[in-house]
Design goal:
Layout: E1 2-3, E2 14-16, E3 22-31, E4 38-45, E5 51-56, E6 61-62, E7 66-68, H1 73-78, E8 87-88, H2 90-100, E9 109-111, H3 112-172
Parallel strand pairs: 2-7
Antiparallel strand pairs: 1-6, 2-3, 3-4, 3-9, 4-5, 6-7, 8-9
């Protein structure tokens, strides 16, 4: 059997106990607060699949058709039915791990679907930040070009002012003479 790597991609697959007996279907995977390590899974079971139990993922393995947990059917059956959401408190996680006799990192647990949603939002935010950075660079480039155009226009205005002053001086002294020259 393979080691569990991307366990969240196995949602809907059968979950079996250590003897290979079906315990239910994989519903959700809960990761430690850092999102690095899968800690628990929720298993849908019962006739209509409306009941949910939590079980630790320690030493779980996958085959082609199922996820195998290293716990007996009796252990899995003894876990209380729970109502779970996208996150589990540290106490909920610790209680399940204690029930199965496994260690767990402290802190709340986050569901894979919530992590995926957060990762999507983070990726969208990164893309938006990149777009805004490019737009800012464009604005800076446009501002620099506008400063150059303004500088050139200022030089043209000064040149026009000097030409006007020279023209006025020439008009005031048609003979080319200046006052006080004799």
């Amino acid at each position: 059997m393979l080691r569990v790597e991307s366990i969240e991609s196995w949602r809907g697959q059968d979950v079996v106990d250590s003897a290979g007996e079906k315990a239910g279907r994989l519903e959700e995977v809960y990761y430690d607060a850092a999102g690095d390590e899968p800690v628990l899974i929720s298993i849908k079971h019962g006739i209509l699949g409306h009941q949910v139990k939590l079980a630790p993922l320690s030493d779980a393995a996958v085959s082609r058709d199922y996820v195998r947990l290293p716990f007996t059917g009796e252990q899995l059956g003894g876990a209380p039915d729970v109502s779970v959401g996208d996150e589990l408190t540290a106490e909920q996680g610790a209680a399940v791990c204690a029930l199965f006799g496994v260690r767990q990192s402290s802190g709340p647990l986050v569901g894979a679907s919530l992590l995926a949603h957060r990762n999507d939002e983070a990726e969208q935010a990164r893309r938006r930040a990149d777009e805004l950075e490019l737009a800012a660079e464009d604005r800076n480039r446009e501002a620099e070009e506008a400063r150059h155009r303004a500088g050139a226009a200022s030089e043209e205005a000064h040149a026009a002012q000097r030409a006007r002053e020279q023209a006025e001086t020439a008009a005031a002294d048609p003979g080319g003479r200046t006052q006080g020259s004799d």
